[in-house]
Amino acid sequence: xxxxxxxNESKKVIPGGVNSPVRAFKPYPFxxxxxxxSSIIDTEGNSYIDHCLxxxxxxxxxxxxxxxxxxxxxxxxxxxxxxxxxxxxxxAKEVIDRVPCAEMVRFVNSGTEATMAAIRLARGYxxxxxxxxxxxxxxxxxxxxxxxxxxxxxxxxxSKGIPEETTSNTLSVPFNDxxxxxxxxxxxxxxxxxxxxxxxxGNIGCVQPDPGFLKFVRKATEQFGVLLIFDEVITGFRVxxxxxxxxxxxxxxxxxxxxxxxxxxxxxxxxxxxxxxxLIAPNGxxxxxxxxAGNPISIQAGLSTLRRLDYQFYADLSRKSDEFRKSLVDIxxxxxxxxxxxxxxxxxxxxxxxxPVYNYETAKKSDTDKFMIYFRELLKQGVFIPPSQFECNFIxxxxxxxxxxxxxxxxxxxxxxxxxxx
Length: 422
Ligand SMILES: *Cc1c(COP(=O)(O)O)cnc(C)c1O
What we know:
Blueprint: H1 3-13, E1 32-36, E2 39-42, E3 47-50, H2 65-75, H3 86-98, E4 104-108, H4 111-126, E5 130-134, H5 164-167, E6 170-173, H6 178-188, E7 192-197, H7 213-223, E8 227-231, H8 243-248, E9 254-257, E10 268-272, H9 274-277, H10 296-306, H11 311-335, E11 340-344, E12 347-351, H12 360-364, H13 368-380, E13 383-384, E14 393-394, H14 401-418
Parallel strand pairs: 3-13, 5-6, 5-7, 7-8, 8-9
Antiparallel strand pairs: 1-2, 2-3, 4-10, 9-10, 11-12, 12-14
Helix pairs in contact: 2-10, 3-10, 6-7, 11-14, 13-14
The structure holds pyridoxal-5'-phosphate (PLP).
The site of pyridoxal-5'-phosphate has 15 residues, from helix 4.
């Protein structure tokens, strides 16, 4: 079957033909046959340089041989136990060694689970019920955080099936807005359990915190007795060895992980101060559990991956990525287009927007129609990025300078098509 037929077939048995909504783009997505290194190959045999990288997890490139060897060897010893293993201790120690705020770690199965559990823990620890998030931030698909933005006020659900009562304790403020946050904390500190933040907003493209913003958030939360949760499901083990808290030098109370931590397999984790983490069951009164939590395959893949991610790895990957972003800036300059090339470390995006993007409101003003023309043209040229202006693109250790040159060329051509330039 060709991809159009596969999509039609899929739609009969899977809602919308996909198992996660962003994967369904028009007229139909390609179906994957296999992926290796920096490439992903579809059922028609077309090969794409992959900058989606499964929306973040694949930092060593697809199907890394050393990681796969460790995973095969673990598979021969069993795939799920319902009892603890030594490797879980090893991976927890690896996380604690890297991540400034991590004194204890609890493994779960996804980033969604991690933020859900961390929010429950923050509420359990503080005895307060409101939470604050930033407009446009994504913390997974669970009820408390799947909300529409609504400055300062209680948020409305962003999905049918979520009762308004469920989101009435979720407040939101614009990213990079110190005053809005300060005002909210002053007004409601005695009710607010935590502020949860993506230190770099990877789910509205790629927006960095203004200099001093994270420091301000840390100080303000401390001052008002509110816990600070860094949602590092994307930035963890992506922007540096110890994630964005190492990169920016800010220590939150709790942190959530997913994506890269599983080395390409499903995982999530939350970590933080011992005093808080000790409240989790069976030690304490905050319940949280999972059949597959600490799954030996995911744990092994995570260990095998993290052991490769040393400071040298991040230095090399950042240098490659900096050169690449510079080449995009040069291309746009040559074309006389003032679009925003953004990103840090191995994250990047081009906002189809002539003005700087610093929060959700400004990101939304990007030209998403042109972006989708650009996306489709990139596919034709052999480059796969997420099909949305509001996702982040990634570079892996497996991307060679030739790959990146190929991508830069394709981007130049695709931008010319989208903006109708010769
Ligand atoms: C992807 C993501 C999540 C959700 O993780 P899943 O594993 O998809 O449940 C949560 N927070 C952030 C910042 C993410 O990027």
